[in-house]
Amino acid sequence: MAEEFSVIGKRLPRVDAIEKVKGEAKFTSDIQLPGMLHAKFLRSPHAHARIVSIDTTRVEALPGVKAVLTPKTVPKVHPLGEVPGIDKLEYLLDETVHYAGEEVAAVAAVTKEIAEEALKLIEVEYEVLPAVFDKEEAIKPGAPLVHPELGGNLCQCPRSVDGMLPLEWGNVEKGFAEADYIIEGTYESPLQHPVSPEPRSVVCQWIGDKLTCWASTQVPQKIRLDLAHCLDIPLSSVRVISTYSVGGYGAKDSEKTATLTALLARKTGRPVRAVFTRAEDLIATHRRIDSKIHGRLGVKKHGTITAIHLKMITNFGRDSKYLFMIPCAGAVGTCSALYRYNNSRWEGYHVYTNIEDHGAMNGFGDPEAGFCVERLIDEAAEKIGMDPVGFRLKNCMRYGDKAMDFFPVMFGPKIEWGVAGPDIDSLPECIRKVAAKAQWKKKWKGWRTPVEVRGTRRRGIGIAIGMHHCIAETETPDAATVKMNHDGSVDVLSSVPEIGQGLKTAMAQIAAEVLGLRYEDVNVILADTSVTPWGPGVFASRGIGAGANSVYLAAKDAKRQLFEMAAQRLGVKPDELEAKEQKIYVKKHPGKAIPIAELCFAGSQVTGNGMIPRNWIDERSGKVIAPVSVAATIAEVEVDTETGELEVLKITSAHDCGRVINPMLIENQIDLSITMGNGWVRSEDFIIDKSTGVMLNSNLLDYKVMTILDMPKGEDIQEIPVEIPAPWGPFGAKGMAETAVTTQAPAIANAIYNAIGVRIRGDHLTPERIFEALGK
Amino acid sequence: MAEEFSVIGKRLPRVDAIEKVKGEAKFTSDIQLPGMLHAKFLRSPHAHARIVSIDTTRVEALPGVKAVLTPKTVPKVHPLGEVPGIDKLEYLLDETVHYAGEEVAAVAAVTKEIAEEALKLIEVEYEVLPAVFDKEEAIKPGAPLVHPELGGNLCQCPRSVDGMLPLEWGNVEKGFAEADYIIEGTYESPLQHPVSPEPRSVVCQWIGDKLTCWASTQVPQKIRLDLAHCLDIPLSSVRVISTYSVGGYGAKDSEKTATLTALLARKTGRPVRAVFTRAEDLIATHRRIDSKIHGRLGVKKHGTITAIHLKMITNFGRDSKYLFMIPCAGAVGTCSALYRYNNSRWEGYHVYTNIEDHGAMNGFGDPEAGFCVERLIDEAAEKIGMDPVGFRLKNCMRYGDKAMDFFPVMFGPKIEWGVAGPDIDSLPECIRKVAAKAQWKKKWKGWRTPVEVRGTRRRGIGIAIGMHHCIAETETPDAATVKMNHDGSVDVLSSVPEIGQGLKTAMAQIAAEVLGLRYEDVNVILADTSVTPWGPGVFASRGIGAGANSVYLAAKDAKRQLFEMAAQRLGVKPDELEAKEQKIYVKKHPGKAIPIAELCFAGSQVTGNGMIPRNWIDERSGKVIAPVSVAATIAEVEVDTETGELEVLKITSAHDCGRVINPMLIENQIDLSITMGNGWVRSEDFIIDKSTGVMLNSNLLDYKVMTILDMPKGEDIQEIPVEIPAPWGPFGAKGMAETAVTTQAPAIANAIYNAIGVRIRGDHLTPERIFEALGK
Fold this sequence. Notes:
Chain A is of the alpha+beta class. Chain A contains 20 helices and 29 strands.
């Protein structure tokens, strides 16, 4: 690419690096307000129970306790769901608890310690009800009902038929009839906790009849909507601020904690802070679904895929913040926008159980579906004796292919098709680049032939690809404002929060690049709902494609105004100008220029506004583009056939970035997602007491998140950015890295197979499971 | 007026009433930050001295002291002046001090007490220099030079000739030649301190390389400019917040305190707070000029004024934040935009002395000039035997008259003329209404004929009129944003601060009225420079005409967008619609309507932007309108001829408001200004030691501000709003009440004359001066 950039593409330090390193950056739990109280929540020890009575007499008498909330004293409202128009089942505080850990009461006291002490003085009488925790148990006849009022444990979605949600395109039966081989199997994926380094935290303060809420969240505007809804006050009376959060990973997307804290603050007339303990965060924030998929794949001898059919059962827990969206998104991704299947059918069964809610988590359905599909694909390639890299290259999507977009499937009245944009050609490019870098040709010795054998230790190599709908459009689009100051510096306003992904840095780079300014001239102000323009938040890798994209459009709008002013002053047309080095230059007369500061002072009030469109249209076909980001990962592993011990030696991961705004941010994101993808199937496990539903490992010693020490070192993790500019992204950039989670488990599973010749279709790739699979 | 309003014009409680009454509203001195230090300033005991040495060894050793600044350790920069391009003489900390009270050093310590203690340990050696305090002494040959580098004490402005600034129009000599009588005299006006209930206060915090500064100020954007300038950082690195301040009265318009506090915070790496004591606020914030004017007025027998000539000398003190603007503004107001003088000449001599700086204060030159002119006018009316009400009615300006605008005179290359807009006809209306309400006809018995005589007590009645340029345009115009939320509620963003004038309330009423919403649906966010659109601040009564006007325009822009969306949905044209009761209605089919919330949700991102124009044009003449607000005050007084005791019995004040947005706000403003206008000449006095220049009454027991107990009670103060909509104001509203200050002193002086037949041309109307004037 011949384009020259002065700010983007550079390894610039994060704009917030110094303040974060010095401990000056303010996170929610850093907020200190005079007279602030501390909130704690009493949680149910039972997975399913009716609260017969709550006696708060003793706690109210405890000095230092300022307020107690119980189901009887809070409004009987459902917090807002993620899908407009569909009510959630959850109440602020419910008279029936549906999982062990659900909030029963809330207390505000002058210290955290008194608040904790107070919880012990609340006397609750429960009538314990029968409970069910396993998704398959839950749909057996006679199983305890999680929500008796629904008459069954199968989640009924508006589009579902008898509790089953079908999505079908092409003619699956015809497809299978045309196949030479049909591969079939049952594949599982495990539950996973996001484990944000910063537990759920919120601070609420009322001033007059106006509420300010500091929250660690990905979606400040949604928290605002939820607070206004639950408290029955205008949105303009609620200000949610989330200037910095740490690691949402999907879990910080909505929460009733804010409302309960706001109610405590209102009742006491004092600011109230609620910060979850690690145990609370594990027990009572939502998590990735666990799933079981029966998959069938039809394939022709020469390598064409003719049909796919997935039948999925997922564990929704007490409630879903998204209803059918998560498994559905995975299905859409893996069944319609990664390979050319032509004929595809997905059946989803979503089951309520008495465990905590599921919700969004990195990958949003793709890892679950992908862990199935990429193992199936591998088996199919083997069946026809084709190299797995070649098989994927042959069948993967290309520009102009029919592709399903996320939004019409999720919200539209019927399934509508768009096209894969020109940037989808990064998919074969990712496969080629990752194969080259990982020395696939040299290392791959054929099916069931290890890369190397040393005694009981066998080395194997495996590949997986994946995609993610990086939502770059939305029903209620992101907007941003770029305010030019009198000295030519700028303030950028956007409602999306910085959650560690580096969006604040990327936005500063983008605005500086567009306007020809220095990186340090840009100040980015994020996620302060009353003052920053609407934007739904950061999720689905939409930070760059939607949030930063609106900043890009706003900066271009400001530049247009500057060019108009400069053109008049310089006696040329706006299109003869360019912005660089804090000046507007006449392109053909580099001596002719005017400082941007001069224009800002004279003209004043140069404010650029940008809003992303609801759809991005493909230039060639005129059809809607399905904005996706893809990746290919190759894992090299060593398995000890005596013990089942698994070592992941190398991970090479090529990622479609559209355009690299800052290489360090890309690498950070990929590394994190690789670690999360490994932890998901290799070390993490959600263990509940099978009789009570109580989580048994609600701490980070026993819930084993992978750390840098558990991962391949330095050079052994290779991140490869692939830059084919997306026609819809800012400078072509797109959201990425969720696919790094998606591709880990199947690449490792496929590498294990290459090493030891045994397929693992279960949910974990632990030494125990490998040992088991080896028939030992 | 037949127009019907649902929100404006109503006696609605202030939007911030509850939070202020409950003590929840955050003012600058309420800001508490973890680790916050306290700043104190060492002040010079000498009015003019060179600092020979400063020894900070002892103070640095005092436990709890974290930083000390001296002239040697701060940047050698001039804070920005108010007039672009003209440097101020002041330095952050200067090696020569020019008045008693000037900052010599600054200290930050862990407590206020330690910081105060620390000041005593700073050892300063001064070389005392000769000083001069009186404006007339200062221009005598051989007087000590305040700024020896200037070669004289006369302020040289860009337009001045030999230290004298002339403004002339018509032919004054010809005018005087045509006069039947010439009235001539020397009139004085006193210095006045603004005495804000909230002393100067500022809190600075650095996070990374970004500064946040909370300041009690009228001009947050100017503080931001000043901080960026003095600290040499981009504007985008500075955020100034002034959500609430109390009573600027002109004095909170710029200050180096913010910069010194920011430097202390940067040096210590901790937040720093500086809050002035009352004494510091009196000694070291700027104040109203004192003046002496020799005036001549030519008048014809039948009552036509033929010429005016004012020769003014004013005491600038050490420096001016405005150079010649303040006296000049008064001259422009009183000599060109109140009466039809036809021929006018003003000569201004502005003198540096070794007392504190002067600066803006309520009325901005008008009270000083007006106290002279309205006494001259009264003498002229008496000379030709005309009733003073009739004389003013005959000569006062009318719509279409040539009128001088503020800005061209202040900033333009030459004097340019505009016209008085149709709203100037409120001037005769004010005179008529105040005369009717005060029962002038009944009470006025003729010149030197008291209203009533009871023993030694004589009752008199007097009138004065006045005008104020309520700046409704500006070089860098105010902008505002109206963000519609999904439920149809709105956030209003503007950079002008709420300083107690009620602007936040007025803006909420205006936005609600325009958009057909409820008052409580509007949230107003003010004066947070990084997020609110540019606006220079509140001064010159511009809050409503410029700040709230941009909100009005932004709300109209949002309404236009809503109408476009609604028109499409309802199948009509936008101009067939109206907004009321939170809905958009088809005017002719009241059953046909769509809720605003519905439009906001579906369309999303309805954001209205408004910016006031640089000039307002008169429809009839096509000429620029000089936006002014006028008033007429009648005072009824009782004087004891034995003792000189003065009682002000009744004040009736009619004020041109254009349109009343909220009657309570109007009344509050008028009442405050009446009190300030009375205090100016009746009780306040700036007393300095004539040999040292040290203020001797720097406390509120000895500097006697008038309180509610000193003023006429209840019914005896009558505020009369006069509503002739200004073509440039929001709903016709305009800034007002500064004229209440202007009209007090001359109305009382003229009433005293009516009571006792003695003219007081001096600066105070105290019993001593009356006693003196009575020749006793």
